[in-house]
Write a structure and sequence with these properties.
Layout (H helix, E strand, L loop, with lengths): L6 H5 L2 H7 L18 H10 L6 H19 L4 H15 L16 H25 L1 H20 L3 H19 L16 E6 L9 H17 L3 E5 L7 H21 L7 E5 L20 E6 L1
Helix pairs in contact: 3-5, 4-5, 4-7, 6-7, 7-8
Length: about 300
């Protein structure tokens, strides 16, 4: 029960309500205690009033209305029902409504200090973006804190005090939880750039088309200064031993052209595989132009 006039004063009329109160409620959403005679208007005004513009505001308004109605309908506490209905109305006006300050309720100095420490953590989380990031959970945390404060002050509904605290702590745990940080993907090594030049039958001569491919390969190497692998190939026509030698000569021819274009020879590995690695599988003895090649791989 929020600090307010006693029910005896309420019998005397609305004018006596303020006269009997000696509590400074400044800093709360409603600068006075609830009034049992205005509850109906207060809750209806909150329900029919404009919707807040934020997701947090909408959720908080709904939480306060539900709590106000429960105070009235289940526990016949129209003082606090009116107080929280008015608080819901303030939320509807897009005001920044804070959790209740324990100093405005009937607690001793030690209780105020303890409960203010809890309130300070809640406000810090709300101000740290949790209203926007987790609006529904943030609204539950604030409403259950206020429930805990109000019910603790009354002190007789121990099950409800415990439930308000449990709900508050569950919401706070969610608000405290760090959002999983998006893990930066593991750096993936760039795939080597592959250039291929082709040869006429039984030839090591560089064709005009291959000249342009070698130019591009040399430019790529100059931009990266990476290691180069040159591999000579043949087709399946001819003996395996002859083709091995032919593939070596083709690799040597390509390497010579690359060094002419500025590629450093000590950064090039040269290999020859003869007819053992056909690009286009064929039976032995078949001439296949696409198998007569040199591949140039730049890391």
């Amino acid at each position: 029960m929020q600090l307010r006039p006693s029910f005896i004063c309420a019998i005397g009329g609305i004018a006596l309500l303020s006269a009997c109160s000696s509590v400074d409620n400044s800093g709360t959403a409603v600068p006075y205690g609830g009034n049992p005679f205005t509850y109906g208007n207060s809750v209806n005004g909150a329900i029919t009033g404009a919707e807040p513009s934020t997701a947090f505001g909408k959720a908080l308004k709904a939480e306060y209305i539900a709590y106000a109605q429960r105070e009235a309908d289940e526990w016949y506490d129209f003082f606090d029902a009116d107080f929280f209905a008015k608080k819901a109305g303030k939320v509807a006006e897009n005001e920044t409504i804070l959790p209740e300050d324990p100093a405005n309720w009937r607690f001793d100095a030690e209780e105020i200090a303890q409960k203010r420490a809890v309130r300070d953590e809640l406000i810090a989380l709300l101000d740290d973006g949790k209203r926007e990031a987790k609006p529904d959970t943030a609204a539950i945390a604030q409403a259950r804190f206020d429930c805990w404060i109000e019910e603790s002050e009354e002190g007789w509904q121990t099950d409800l005090i415990s439930q308000c605290w449990k709900d508050f702590e569950a919401a706070m745990s969610e608000l405290r939880a760090e959002e999983p940080k998006e893990m930066a993907p593991e750096p993936v090594a760039a795939a080597p750039r592959l250039f291929t030049i082709f040869f006429d039958f039984d030839s090591t001569a560089i064709t005009p088309v291959s000249e342009r491919v070698l130019d591009a390969a040399a430019e790529q190497w100059a931009s990266s200064m990476s290691n180069v692998t040159v591999v000579g190939h043949t087709d399946a026509s001819g003996s395996a031993s002859y083709n091995q030698g032919l593939s070596e000569r083709r690799a040597s021819s390509a390497l010579s052209e690359l060094t002419k274009r500025g590629v450093k020879g000590d950064m090039v590995d040269s290999e020859a595989v003869g007819e053992s690695d056909l690009l286009i599988p064929t039976p032995d003895g078949v001439r296949e132009p696409r198998n007569r090649r040199v591949t140039i791989s730049i890391d």
